[in-house]
Amino acid sequence: EVTQADDAAFFMDHPAFRLPEMDERKTVFMRFLTKRRMTVELQRVVDSMSDKTSTDYLLAAATALMANRDMLPKAAGFLKVLLQHDSRHATALRLLGKVYRELGAYEAAAGVYEKLVELFPDNRAHLFNFCLCLVETSDERARQQLFKLVYKYPEDSNVVRLLAWSHLCAGELEKAKTEYAKILQLDEAGRADYVNMGYCHWFGGDIDGAVEDFRHAVEKSSVEQVLGNLESDAELIARFVTSDVEVFLMRDLVRSVADA
Hints:
Blueprint: H1 4-13, H2 23-35, H3 39-48, H4 55-66, H5 72-85, H6 90-103, H7 106-119, H8 124-136, H9 142-152, H10 157-169, H11 173-184, H12 191-203, H13 207-220, H14 223-232, H15 234-240, H16 244-259
Helix pairs in contact: 2-3, 2-4, 3-4, 4-5, 4-6, 5-6, 6-7, 7-8, 8-9, 8-10, 9-10, 10-11, 11-12, 12-13, 13-16, 14-16
């Protein structure tokens, strides 16, 4: 059986493929490969391009590199070069915002999404990501932008989640519990929702309530995944839990609920 990868390899192995005159056709081919997530083949085409300054080349190169987390900084470099020539290039801005978020560079990502919100004020995803980055950096503009988001999309469960997370990060535990309670009533409620409600209870001194939330979180996934949440949320936990013993107790209780 001949696969798309086989077809792509046949095309790229042809001697004519290496000619500079093929660059224009390669840009079309790169879009084809990008759409089908054929990153190995895409990287090969990117490396073969003669003109490494074109918009298509820079976008394709960044897309190929984004498939490898270790290459995210290099992908950002390609996108920033493109944006030097066209600061309003929507696709490049979206990709750069995503790269910054995956790198945890939320302040830089906020700047990108702010630009996207200016360009596309009615785009829900851009406003959501802008708010998320502001919350993650404790930016004073977060609350104002969140109110705007909630006003425009009050029924969006992810918007409610973000509002709850913002309250949790700010130590407004009762407000956070109110919002997470809305999420937990939905069929779509998942592991992270129960873990975050568990934080609300734990940080507020209700250990039994937290254990029950962690139990539900484990039922929705696994002990390992819930412990993964605790690991990734270490910075948040450290704001409220100063004792290493208490952190150990939290992790131990998560393990114990699976055996109960």
